[in-house]
Amino acid sequence: MVGRKAIHLLREEDRKRVPELRELHIDIGARSSEEARERVRIGDVAVIAGEPLELANDRFVSRSMDNRLGAFIALEAARLVAEAGGAPGDVAACAVVQEEITMAGARTSSYALSPDVAIVVDVTHETGSPGVDVNELGAHRFGEGAVIERGSLLNPAVFELLHETAKREEIPFTVAASARATGTDADAIHLQRAGIPTGGVAIALRYMHSSVEMVQLDDIGHCARLIAAFAQSLSAETSFAR
Q1: What are the structural domains, with CATH classification, of the chain?
Q2: How confident is the model at residue 240 (pLDDT cuts 50, 70, 90)?
Q3: Which of 6, 33, 99, 105 is most buried per CB count within 10 Å?
Q4: SS3 (DSSP) at 229
Q5: Over 90: is that where the pLDDT of 94 sits?
């Protein structure tokens, strides 16, 4: 259990603020510090235990959807390409590590593979829940399909091809704009080697970075279909020059 002082014991001013990390502790039921050290070691990790939950309207709740969803969509897109007989070139689906801290997996994988083009899959904020400002984030609601990202670090030709592919294949989508960094592995990948043309496809997610992240399942399929169709549309003549 993640614990803190009971609300009855808090001062009035402390009840109104979010607790800092140093004010929380993990209670494993140990009788003493000695017993606790027998059960866990310094540096051991912990996660919030929570079973996945299926809700109405094809919606699903679980911890760690960000970015297990991205890994699944990449794999599913590769499966769809293979099922359709392949693409003009090789298609690699990568589940890379440490995006939140160093983007190490994206750096090493993209350097090793040296792809002609890369599509980064991540989550973005769903904007249909109460209190979310669509004027700040744009409108990306459940059921509206893939979210195609564009911004200064993303290759404009890749964006246009994703946009054209979604329209041609009648895949529902919205567009999200980012200024400067995207906050995804695209920020690292586009700088590898002599520069890798990079695009972004996201899935709308509620309650990001919590143990109750929510997604609409058919949006996942739309993202995978879009990336697969994009890969199949490429040819030796495709240019990503800015």
Answers
A1: 2-39 (no CATH), 53-233 (3.40.630.10)
A2: confident
A3: 99
A4: helix
A5: yes
